[in-house]
Each structure stands twice: as structure tokens, then as C-alpha cells.
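Pasting two entries for a bug report.
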Amino acid sequence: MGSEEGEVKLSRRWNAALQPVEVCGARGAHVRRHGRPSLRKALVLVALFAILAGAAPVASATKVGVVLAGSVQVFWQTMTKGIQRAALDLHVDLVMRNPSDGASLGTERNVQLRMIDYMVQNGVAGIVLAPEPLEDVATPVSITVPTVLVDRSSTDYNAISTVTTDNLAAGRTAALSLVPVLRKGAKIAVLRLSPNISSTTERENGFLAVAREMGWEVVVEAYVGYRFHETQEGVLKALNGYAGHLDAVFAPNETTADGALRVIEAMPAGDRPRLVVFDWRPEFLDALKRGVVYADVVQDPYRMGYLALETLVADLQGHPSRPRVFVDVVTVTQANMNDRAIRAVLAHYAQ
């Protein structure tokens, strides 16, 4: 199978999907055999009028594939909505296949390759991919249709463009939110997600860079898991491993943020560290109001998904694409949660 060899094969059949379709049928032949001349003339005039009115048959919709890295997290659900909106606006058909969240990091290694292979064999014109790491496969994999990466970069695939948050800068933004309230020597914890997920690794590294610059002491730095059911236990174990008082905790994605919130919320109010999280869930709003979450760096996955599909379709139409497209984040706090710009981003999560 192509995925075992690091190759995904597809004939260039997808070109046909971009070509005009000529439509004729048996009814026309029937008229020619049995219709009277006046009837034939009338039908010709009707057809000519339809063409002039713009009602002539058009090319069938381009079919594109989408493979994200999950579907349970609010982040992926919101990105899916952005992709679907772009598909409606750009008149393309979607074929979506997503593994369960974290599957590629567990028992279903390289599952995305099998999904891509299925789509390619079924004639998609291009792929939007949120890449999970590959194992025991020759890389970079060259998919034989144009591919746009979304949410994260990857050296495992050749791609025409990558649409992401500037994750290193966003990690720095998360740490900078703490600068006004932390002194030199402050004790902080960084809850890591996975060593081979580029997006969260960049955020963690950005946060740690500011911590070093500010003279904060990183007393906890631990991988706490990917899935919701495991992160709370991982966070509890990591934080309990430090006997002193923590001044701040950073969680770099939705699942680690959820686990950290549950653990810190259970602490006595006077012992709680300031919690800075990444991504958005509805319950984070209440936690911000109550001061359990100090700040939340929120991505815009809706816009990210929209731009990824838009970039792919533009390439299929012969337009050049930018190698990197960055989508801005916003930092949500008690003080600004009702600002118009903040509400605009959060509204995407509710659509």
C-alpha cells in the first residue's frame, strides 16, 4: 500500500474535475428523430436563451479532501465550520476524514496516510491536512495532489502552503501576560503536550524563552498527555511533584488547559497559581470571570480553516500561494473579555 512506502499515488484524473462538462442526452436525439422542424427551432431558441441568461451547464464542483487531527476538541469542530463555510463560498465539495483525537499518537500510527490514500484514489483535487507525526515512513511524503497544511507545520509532508498561528510568538504572548504580576525568581510550571507536535512545542518554547529572560524559575516541566481523560491525571501528578508554592502555570492547548483548570479549581483559593491557558472552551469564560484562569490566548481556528481551503482552491485555479500564512491570536482576560475584537473571535466558536 502506498502509505507503507511513504508515497501516496494518484493519477492526474483530478484535472478532469476542473474541465467544463458537455451535456447532451437521449432526449435531444429523440427530438431530432421525431420532432417537427418548428419544434426543433423552438428548442434551439430556448437553449440559446438559456446560454445567454447564464443558465448553461457548468463544470462539476471541484472535490477536495480534508484530514484534520481530531473532531472532539472544540478547536477542531470550529476549524471544520470554517472549512465548510469556505467550501460553500467557493463552490467546492468536501470529503472529510478525521481520526479520533490523539489516535495517531497512540495505537493508530500513520492513520492519516490511509485516509489520504483513500481520498487520492477517489479523485480529490487537493488536500487540507492537519498533520500528525509519521513513524517508520520515508519522509517527506509527496502527495500527488496539491496539499495545504493547517494548524501546524511538518517536515513529514511536501506542501504548497501552511496556514497556522505563529506559535512561537503566541507562546511568548502567553508569558508576557504574566510580566506585570510576576517578580524575578517566580516559580512556574509548564505543562507540555507531546514532543512531536510542532505547534504546541513552539508555544511551550516561546513561553520558556520569556521565562528565562524574566528570571523566572521553571520548577515543573512535564508532558501530561493528549486526551481529555488523561490530562487531568497528568496535570495532578506533575503539580503534586512540586512541594512548594507555584506562582503560575501554563497549559499550551485545549486538553492540557482543561486538565489544568480542573486541578487548579480544586485547590484552596489562596493556594492557586495564576493559570494561563491556550485555546478556548465555553467553560473557560466562567473561569476567567471567577479569576481561576488568569489569561487565555485564543486562536481563530475558524479563520484558519477558511484560509487553508481558500489557499488550496486558489492554487488549483492557477494562482500562486504564500508558503506561510499566519492567523492572529487574541489574549482574553477579565478586563477585556467584552471588547468587540475579543467577542468577534469567540463568536466563531459558537457558530
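Entry 2 (this is the one that rendered wrong in the viewer):
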Amino acid sequence: MNKKDIKESRIKNYFIDSTKEIIMSEGFKAVNVRNVSEKAGYSPATMYSYFKDLNELMLQCTSSFIDDLSKFVSEGVSGDNTEKSDIFKFYSYYTKYFIQYTGIYQLLFLEPNFMLTKSNEIQNILFGLKDPFLSLSTLSSIQLKLIDYAVHGLLLFYLNRNSPLNYAEFKTDFNLIFELVEN
């Protein structure tokens, strides 16, 4: 890489990292060109020198978030020595990630105006994250769909503070999903 490419990569990463920080701390709705540029330490005009628009920047952030999620889940499952099934472990770490980073969940699943919600590629990647953990599963495809829908529904209610009221109740309900479907 020459100096120009290194500089371009560094500045792009400033914008990506700044956007990710805003999403993780304040949520998706706080992301705008002015906030991102200010946090990155550059003018809004500079951002447009490196990204066509805010959606292009968000696409790169989303890709980075999915990589982070995948790494978090894989490391969690591989380090988990409990007797639970791999699919249980997958969803356990998957939900922990989104509970910790609610803004990322909102971006990926709840923001209807964001162009990525219409992107089949992003959705396929997200839903394909569990595939490596299914190889030893004895569950039918219908059971797996039930788990997927139930976990996402429970997570949605929990993150929107509708029910369950606390994390202990969330974990109880989470465990119940697997007890009902696996038996």
C-alpha cells in the first residue's frame, strides 16, 4: 500500500468507527453526517470524499457489526463447556450481543427506512450465522424455525421493555423456549 491508500483507509476507518460508536452508545437515530463527522474529527465535506452518502457508510458499519457478532458468538460457543446444545449456545450468545448493543439490533432488524433492511444479502448473512451450529442438531427445520421466531420475538419484546421485565425473566423465558421445542 502506498501512503495515499494508507491515509484513505485510516480516514475511512475513523468514520466507520465513529459511526459504530454512535450506534452502540446512542442508537441508530443519532447517526447523521454532522454527528459522525464531528466524532471522527473531520468536516462533513470530508466524509463525502470517502463515502458516496450516509447509506454507504452505514453499509460498511453493518458489515463490521455482523463480523463482530459472528466473532462474539463463535468465541462464546467454543468456550462454553455446558451440556447445552450448540444451537442453544448460539442463541444464548446471539441474544447477549444484542442485549448489550441494542442500537445494533435496532439498525439490523427494526429500522424500516434503512436501505439494508431490504437487502436480502445482509438478511441471509445474519440468518446464516447459525448454520455452523446446526450440523449436530437433531431438530427438524420446523423446530428450528420455531426457535428462531420465538427467540427473536422474545428479544424484541425485551429490548422494547414490554416483557419480560428483567434479565432473569428473559433467561427463564429463553430456557423455556428450548425446553418446549426440544422436547
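Dev reply: Rendering is fixed now. As a check, the viewer should reflect this: The two ends are 56 Å apart (CA to CA).
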